[in-house]
Amino acid sequence: MSVTEAPKGGNGYVGQAMKRREDPRMITGRGNYIDDMILPGMLYMAVVRSPEAHATITSIDTAEAKAAPGVVAVFTGEELAGDFAGPIPMVWDPPGVDINTPEHWPLKRGEVKHVGDPIAVVVANTKGQAADAADLVIAELDPKPAVVDPEKALEEGSPLVWEQFGTNKTHEWAVAGGDFDGALSVAEVMVEQRVVNHRISGAPIEPRGSIAEPRAESLTLYSATQIPHIARFVLSGMLEIPEDRLRVVAPDVGGGFGAKLQVYAEEALVLVLAKRLNRPVKWVETRSEHMSTSHHGRDQIAYVTLTAKRDGTLTGVRAKVIADLGAYQQILTPFIPELGFPVAGGCYKIPAIDLNFVGVFTNKMATDAIRGAGRPEMTYWIELMMDKLARELDMDPLELRRKNFIPKEEFPYETPLGIVYDSGNYEGTLDKLLVNFDLDAFRAEQAQLREKGIHRGVGFSTWVEVCGLAPSRAVGPQGVGLQAAFWESAMVRVHPSGSATVYSGASPHGQGLDTSFAQIAADRLGITPEQVHVIHGDTDTGPFGWGTYGSRSLSVGGEAIARAAEKVQEKAKKVCAALLEAAPEDIELADGKFSVKGSPDKSMTMAEISGAAHIPPNELPADIEPGLEEASFYDPENFVFPFGAHACIVDVDIETGKVKVVDYYAVDDCGPAINPMLIEGQVHGGIAHAIGQALYEQVVYDDEGQLVTGTFVDYALPTAAELPSFNTDRTETPSPVNSLGVKGVGEAGTIAATPAVTAAVLDAIKPTGVEWLDMPLTPMRVWQAIHGDGPAATEQGKDIPEHGQGSAGSGPASPGEGGPS
Amino acid sequence: MIPAEFDYQRVASVDEAISALGTGGEDAKLLAGGHSLVPLMKLRLAAPALLIDMGGIEELKGIQRANGHWSIGALTTHATLQSSDELGVVAAAASQIADQQVRNRGTIGGSLAHGDPASDLPAVLLAAEAEVVARGAGGERTIPVAELWQDYLTTALTPDEVLTEVRLPALDGYSWGYEKFTRRAEDWAMVGVAVLAKVSDGVCEDVRIGLTHMASTPLRATAAEEALRGQPLDAEHIAAAASAAADGTEPPGDLNATAEYKRHLAGVLTGRALRTAAGG
After folding, report:
1. Window B:99-118, CB contacts with A under 8 Å
2. Is the Cβ–Cβ distance between A13 and A523 less than 8 Å?
3. Which chain A positions have a beta carbon within 8 Å of B183's beta carbon?
4. Which residue does chain B place closest to A713, by CA atoms?
């Protein structure tokens, strides 16, 4: 444990707000994204997709497309069926629970299950020719009833997405700790609510894209992915290509937000086509394809019950979650709703927690991980339920929170679910927030503005999240049941002249980790970050790794780098000690020099040491191996639990319902900063992302399963014009889990901010009597709620139904039976 | 997002454009900025065989005042309009079109000829009682904008005509207000309202109210205008006009707004635009 010590080596790059060194290249057009890559002889693939939500494929006529200019080949699902050894996999196999998982093939045969489902591919010499010919493929589809609403999908007699299962229910998974029923029976106060967390898109600036290149007996897949090593593992199995003959490279990747934490049909298809045609084949997703066929996130309905004593002491929480999973099980689809369960109680001491999750098939694109993945949903309902309880108790919502915070003295704190929160100081972030944001002054201003007809409100979120995925034993096959592990690898190689290359198994795609990884390595190697080259995202250049997602890359991947670099440092000290005729334990690294304790004039630089390690002088003992390179495979012993306190301030135009975020305060704690500027950037982006979900963004399907939001005209991503300048601040509570003391921050803002935004709107319109609104808080929805005739207003009256207790496959036992009346 | 194949011709004069339209027939389209047409082509909702780029026709760029009218060349960009304060409500509306990148490329002629009822300028020019000049193989004619837009994306221009100029009454002595309601700054108007009012001796001598996106073409809020004509522009009469703003309209509903909500917005925005015109 060295969290309280200065970083070993003491060059002091860790902690500095260094500018992202990857940026000059990227913002001057010198990046290397999939769409920039042109290989000799490359062909282009276009995908013919289903315009129907649910249909039987009657016939596909490809004759005209095959005859079109420049077309090399056209294939249907039937024609490529023999090219796949296995379907696209889903990797969650929880002990004791069966998950209905239909075979999911890259090209469909028989039936299509959602708009955008691939039914044929066209390969041509140019992408224009491929697009032209794709329009000439004539598919006859016989429509079937579409299943769109997840609660209706669970009702008896609903049309089925997959008839073989006899139900639209995919699975049911439950976890509980403490005695919730007991808490409920003696509850002095209880609040209940149906909470909707709607469907969103990842919408990275770079859409997906892949190129498969055959060469000799090997295949290379260049792909805009967050998980090159997992992709190789999965695709080699799907296509029966030995892993050593398949190389996967993630070049520059322009954001992912989880949408590229996936193995997609198109990746398998370009590989199959490259193999068949023996030429490189490229596919780049259009934005409309992204909206319909890159996995979506969220789409859950939670029925939440929170119980407490009259004095505000929480006694229990129960949530029954219905998760709309879409038509197929992608790699983590059924697991994502559950992923937030470790922090279901938020940052509060709640003795009883009872969670139940039901997954549902619908005729929509699959849901899966989108930034936050399970945790934004939990945070959203626990925080808004705290506000609701405060109203019920007529208590200040922040006082209610403080009363129930897990005190900082009680960490590590074990929740009723057996999860151990590693560290925390929830009072500390809230205190700092209220220093930065003067609540009393705000309330005075709010009252004055109301007299002028301006409705301003503030909402708070005191949140904790779980990240640093993940301790492999906790989440692996014998734990939660993922057929995977989540350690991370690093290799640190010091070159003879003293510069170094760091290989990471993480796969950054915009986070700035090139910079922070170099800072970590530089301090431990006694060189500058400029002397550290960071390589990632190539299965042929470094050891296996698990990629970048789940705010894991620093706390797991960065720790692996620190450990590998410290191994190098140890060896460097041995070399140095031998040459300076001292004991290795007497060599210390400071200010870029390895010197003998007490004799600062006797010292060597890393360049001198590495030169000697590579061209050993006779003075170097034979038992010291030449070279200077070490690897580390780090599996964390626990998750890490970042936390914070946020306040959002909004104005609501009461006449139109339009919400404007006028100010935002955030205090985050993700442990000691490696690079404060990167943290700030991640927090800004995360908050913007959450404001996007809360106010603007929603993937909408109509009653027939047609995608209504197919472009950025209708899928309303916020721009800078919609956002205020954020006031960010931090506290630093080191994690005891890793030597850096760090926790993740990539998803924190997204997890934290949606409840603060909604609470602020509810505070602003409090005089109208509206007490609940479901996101997104669009002008029309807010206006309708205020005027009492919209869906937002009617939904608040819904009853809390009972969940069915049946296991997956036993028929539609569902909250629908209890009946929202 | 790849357009279907098309031919491209850049022209240097209106005559050359007319001649190219004659050659290209109904499959030819004029390009005058491209921020509406090109996205439609990329989505393959439009697939012209010939794209005639007017970008090089210098004679159609610029703003001049003559004989009590503003004469605005069809290729004048929104950015130029936006920085021409003397155009009043036209400049204000232009400054709210999409984002600055679009305003730097998009042109007034391109916007009017596209005929999108959600665009900013049509309702403004309808309220201003502007007219456009169209030139074709058969000569030149002027078309009052009230007759220009016939339906969604449909105008009175014939396939061989080039919209060359917008003529706008100078409207000296008019005050104005412009309200555009969007979810995001860059969006098309959910509803927009342009007001022009001339107040003499304490009463509205003239008032004109244009509505954006309340029908398949821009509309005049005639009932609201009627409620104000000859009346003082005070709170009471503004409220009456606002409540009549949506009279007779049957706006199309969409994802973000039902017809009922749009009608409500039209009233709110009309009230606000009138209050601006009234001076606060």
Report:
1. 99
2. yes
3. 658, 696, 716, 778-779
4. B187
User: DSSP letter string over B22-81?
Assistant: HHHGGGEEEESS-TTHHHHHHTTS---SEEEE-TT-GGG--EEEETTEEEEETT-BHHHH
Same CATH topology for A23-31+487-634 and A296-470+638-795: the answer is yes
* CB contact (8 A) between residue A132 and residue B181: no
Could you report how far apart the first and last alpha carbons of chain A are, in Å?
57
Instruction: Show me where the domains of chain A are located.
Output: 23-31+487-634, 34-144+207-253+260-293, 296-470+638-795
Residues of A in contact with B267 (CB under 8 A): none
Task: Report the alpha-carbon distance of residue A362 to residue A113 in Å, rounded.
Answer: 8
Q: How far apart are CA A262 and CA A210, in angstroms?
A: 13
Q: Which structural domains are found in chain B, ordered by start?
A: 7-53 (3.30.43.10), 58-169 (3.30.465.10), 175-277 (3.30.390.50)
Ramachandran area for residue A9 (φ above 0: left; ψ -120 to 50: alpha; else beta) = left
Measured between CB atoms, which of B1, B4, B183 is closest to A716? B183
A658: closest chain B residue by CA: B183
Q: Any idea which fold A296-470+638-795 has? A: Aldehyde Oxidoreductase; domain 4 (3.30.365)
Distance CA A195, CA A191 (A): 12
Confidence of residue B98 (pLDDT cuts 50, 70, 90): very high
pLDDT at A790 over 80: no
Residue B139 pLDDT more than 80? yes
Fold of A23-31+487-634: Aldehyde Oxidoreductase; domain 4 (3.30.365)
Q: Does position A727 have pLDDT exceeding 80, yes or no?
A: yes
Closest in A696, A709, A784 to B183, CB measured: A696
Q: How far is A215 from chain B (nearest CA, A)?
A: 30
- Cβ of A135 within 8 Å of Cβ of B183? The answer is no
The total of other beta-carbon atoms located within 10 Å of residue B186's CB is 19
Average pLDDT over residues A556-566: 98
CB-based contact A722 B185, cutoff 8 Å: yes
- How close is the nearest chain A Cα to the Cα of B41, in Å? 13
Q: CB-side exposure of A765: number of CA atoms within 13 Å?
A: 30
Comparing alpha-carbon positions, the chain B residue that sits nearest to A695 is: B183
Write down the pLDDT at residue A805: 35
Q: Give me A145's structure tokens.
A: 């009833």
Name the CATH architecture for the domain at A34-144+207-253+260-293.
Alpha-Beta Complex (3.90)
pLDDT at A10: 58
**DSSP 8-state assignment for residue A482:** B
Please tell me which residue, A666 or A796, carries the higher pLDDT value.
A666
In the numeric block, the tokens 């032209």 are attached to A132
- The tokens describing A31, both together, are 């990046």
> What's the CA gap between A422 and A402, in Å, rounded?
19
Amino acid in position B199: V
**Res A176 pLDDT > 70:** yes
The helix (run of H) or strand (run of E) holding residue A426 is helix A426-436
Residue B150 C-alpha, separation from nearest chain A C-alpha, in angstroms: 24
Across the interface, do A718 and B184 touch by the CB < 8 Å criterion? Answer: yes
* pLDDT tens for each residue of B54-70: 999 999 999 999 999 99
Q: Which amino acid is at A464?
A: V
Contacts of A284 in chain B (CB under 8 A): none
Spatial CA neighbour of A794 closest among A777, A770, A819: A770
- pLDDT at residue B72, as a whole number: 98
Residue A791 has pLDDT above 60, yes or no: no
Q: Are A336 and A106 in contact (CB under 8 A)?
A: no
Interfacial residues of A (vs B; Cβ cutoff 8 Å): 127-128, 131-132, 135, 286-288, 655-656, 658, 696, 700, 708-709, 711, 713-714, 716, 718-719, 721-722, 778-780, 783-784
